[in-house]
Design brief:
486 residues, 4 domains, six-stranded mixed beta sheet, five-stranded mixed beta sheet, 16 helices, 17 strands
Length: 486
């Protein structure tokens, strides 16, 4: 036992030595007493967002984030205040930053904000940067790359998507040589990989280097850089549709057999091994995950079979990070499917009555998310009010205001009255993100077990009454009967 405790202590000591603190001190004028959140992507195949931390902005507009990172780790992420998002920031281990956001009226009561249509980006500047800082290097390189692509592709204000030209191989090669020469003395490993694989992606897209040569130069016997966005973008572009569309060594029938006819992870992996580019086990399985993500949206493959294979892979793979990617894919692909749980929610009425997941028990629930400024939302609520008389006791109707200010709902209900309860989302932006609402009105139907029947269902004015009848008769509605809300 003493030997075991000593071993554990030594491991903890080593981890503690390697750990480092990175700090961000910030100023966000206009966001006083609001919460600022920092997110990263858990992986660049599923693109699942991960909330790293959230802190309160004080009454003077200042805030501080402290992150625990490890040697050579770079945390790439972005900020959110309310539902406004910033551009990406790169945070290396053992680094402190001072940042300042451009003044912005976050609390403007008259702002109409539609997530799907918003183009507002929170702008910030780093006050203590230097030419060799990772953010400065990547920012400068990205401007240089954009300038090259715009100039050499013939892009201007009158350019259409059909008239872009591909630069000559010699032009692309010269640019690659120039970039490598310019940054040859930069010692930042993350940045070296960033511009190296960004250049590889240009060579791939411009077809200035054959795919075989690209593989040999950038992928063969090279580690998979899961946390480097430029590497993963190149990886995704190189292997997109590789298994079922690009490779002439992998038989499509083998893929369909091992997915649709008899889901078989091992048979699927063995089929991929017939292509010499996928002889490396870890690379082969990463390519499989990438392609399965895209197969899920195609009619060729059975969705249930793909999820079954992903579950098996997540439970059996020896590559922990790829097991995490598989779990993230399962979540991202199925989170709003019929039978999935409604995320944890808490809504508040003006008299502070609470509606949460417990309120769903043993009842069919039709949720309508709306904004008080939308005439389309008002029209749907008025139709729903009439339907309430027919369905009360069998289906509970719930309206949820997504207005930024609860006071807007107060004035709205002072002018309009409804027979069913109306709540506000309580400015819980993390909860709002979990629902992925992009436009209003948005209807959801939840079963007595608290699981989705439909995440995006027919609106009251478009035949929801017939849908309710089918539900009550235990009939499964056909897809043709459903018109998603806009």
């Amino acid at each position: 036992m003493k030997i075991l405790l000593a071993f554990v202590a030594s491991i903890l000591f080593v981890l503690n030595i390697q750990a480092a603190k990175s700090v961000i001190n910030g100023y966000a004028p206009g966001a006083e007493n609001l919460t600022i959140r920092f997110y990263t992507w858990d992986d660049f195949i599923s693109n699942r967002e991960k909330l790293v931390d959230s802190v309160l902005i004080d009454s003077t507009g200042h805030f501080t984030f402290t992150f625990t990172l490890y040697e050579k780790q770079v945390l790439m992420g972005f900020f959110r205040i309310m539902d406004f998002t910033s551009s990406e920031m790169y945070i290396p281990a053992n680094k402190s930053y001072s940042i300042e956001f451009r003044p912005f009226d976050y609390k403007d009561p008259n702002r109409i904000h539609i997530p799907m249509l918003s183009n507002i980006i929170l702008e910030y500047s780093i006050k203590n940067t230097d030419p060799h800082d990772l953010n400065q290097l990547i920012g400068s390189y990205n401007l240089e790359m954009a300038g090259f692509l715009f100039e050499k592709s013939g892009i201007n204000n009158s350019t259409s998507s059909y008239s872009l030209k591909r630069p000559a191989k010699t032009v692309v090669d010269s640019f690659v040589v120039a970039v490598n020469e310019k940054y040859k003395n930069e010692n930042n490993e993350f940045f070296k990989n960033y511009y190296t694989y960004s250049l590889a992606n240009v060579q791939l897209n411009m077809q200035s280097l054959s795919k075989k040569n690209l593989f040999n130069q950038y992928l063969y016997k090279k580690p998979i850089l899961y946390d480097n966005v430029a590497y993963m973008e190149f990886f995704g572009n190189y292997f997109s549709d590789f298994i079922y569309g690009v490779s002439n060594k992998i038989q499509p029938y083998d893929i369909e057999l091992n997915v649709n006819i008899k889901p078989n992870l091992q048979g699927l992996v063995d089929s991929l091994g017939k292509d010499t580019l996928l002889r490396n086990e870890q690379l082969r399985e990463a390519v499989l995950l990438l392609n399965m993500r895209d197969w899920y949206t195609e009619h060729t493959f059975k969705k249930d079979s793909l999820i079954k294979i992903l579950n098996t892979y997540a439970a059996t793979t020896k590559f922990d990070i790829q097991g995490k990617i598989a779990r993230n894919l399962i979540f991202m692909l199925t989170r709003y499917n019929a039978g999935s749980n409604l995320p944890p929610v808490t809504f508040y009425s003006l008299d502070n009555t609470i509606f949460n997941n417990d309120s769903l028990k043993n009842k069919y629930t039709y949720l309508v998310f709306f904004a008080t400024w939308s005439h389309a939302c008002l029209a749907e609520l008025l139709v729903l009010d009439k339907l309430y008389q027919d369905w009360q006791g069998r289906i509970q109707f719930v309206g949820v205001s997504m207005d930024r200010e609860p006071l807007k709902l107060f004035y709205f209900l002072d002018e309009h009255s409804f027979s069913f309860p109306i709540y506000h989302f309580g400015t819980n932006w993390v909860m709002a993100e979990s629902l992925s609402l992009q436009s209003y009105p948005h209807g959801m139907l939840i079963g007595p077990d608290g699981k989705f029947i439909r995440y995006c269902t027919t609106l009251p004015s478009r035949g929801i009454n017939d849908y309710f009848k089918q539900i009550m008769l235990r009939a499964k509605p056909s897809e043709e009967d459903l018109t998603p809300g806009q």
